[in-house]
Amino acid sequence: MMRTRLMNAVWAMGLLSLMGGCQSPGMSKKELSQRLEEPGFNTVVFADYDLNRNFSEGLFGPDKVLRLSSAGHGIGYTDTGTSEVWLELRNHTDHNYVVEARTRFFSQQGIPVDAKPVWQRLPVPANSSAVYREKSVGTERLQYRIEVRQAR
Amino acid sequence: MIRKSLVAAAVLAGIQGCAPVQVDNVAGQATVYEDPTTSGRVQGVGIESQDVVAMTDQMMRDMLANRILAARDVPPRIIIDNEYMRNESSSIINTNLLTDRLRVELNRAANGRLIFVGRHYADMVEKERALKRDGAVDGGTIRKTQATAGADYRLGGRVASLDAMDRNTQTRSRYHQVTFEMVDLELGTIVWSGSYEMRKAAQDNVLYR
């Protein structure tokens, strides 16, 4: 009886280790799907998955866990014809956050153009929102991608 | 007694002589490159590389969105140098870091919308002009002008700070306010202003040089 139980335990452990071997170490299947998503243009990307995470293949629980989210974003033009993007970030938690955001501009053909993007700090108060703005240096019509991460 | 001491000294010298050279074969702290646009390993309450990059980038983009500066039919001539940039803060900062980066990035990005006068190179230009006028060298290939370029606008500014310290925890905090202003060199009016604010707190004792 004891020997059978021991054998069953060994089999179970072997099976589990085989299943574990199918995944990359330290990376769950759910995270992997978000990492491989196409970011696209005129979008906001949370480079820090702790801030905003999607679950596409979870068996149980919610399919989205977030602390901060985008309440809206868009692009306008300044008096000199340069582009200005804006992003309203909403903090859903009871804690103040300081995040960093940067914008990469692309031509209409999807080619990265304009000045090198630089991280700008933005405080987002608890249960409140904050607006991030960034201007381009060129006057051509551009697409954008805004990246957000926790401040370092 | 003296003989015993001499023997002991000789034995010790012998032992010392036999000891091999010791090599401390432990890996030291390797030098690493860090991204200047983000916080590094050494962080304090002063102005650091990521702050210089962030504030000059923000000012550059803002100036290019200003109609008076960047949308004129005839591009304005601008001086951006350290002459009127004052550091009145308790942080040690070479303000050339701010003005040099701002001028270089703005010049690259403006692409002819703004013309930059290198007033900090005025001495160099005058020397060459004098050599040309004296006939010591020929006139070059570009052109001859009556005088060097006069400027329409010049950058001024100030770095100021406010310090606070918690004596119980030894935590110190420093608020920085860096202002940049573009002054009309005929009228004396300020045609563009920008400011960058930040407050940092730390317990570490970091030295800036």
From TrEMBL, chain A:
<dbReference type="InterPro" id="IPR038483">
    <property type="entry name" value="YcfL-like_sf"/>
</dbReference>
<protein>
    <recommendedName>
        <fullName>DUF1425 domain-containing protein</fullName>
    </recommendedName>
</protein>
Automatic annotation (TrEMBL), chain B:
<dbReference type="Pfam" id="PF13036">
    <property type="entry name" value="LpoB"/>
</dbReference>
<protein>
    <recommendedName>
        <fullName>Penicillin-binding protein activator LpoB</fullName>
    </recommendedName>
</protein>
<dbReference type="InterPro" id="IPR014094">
    <property type="entry name" value="LpoB"/>
</dbReference>
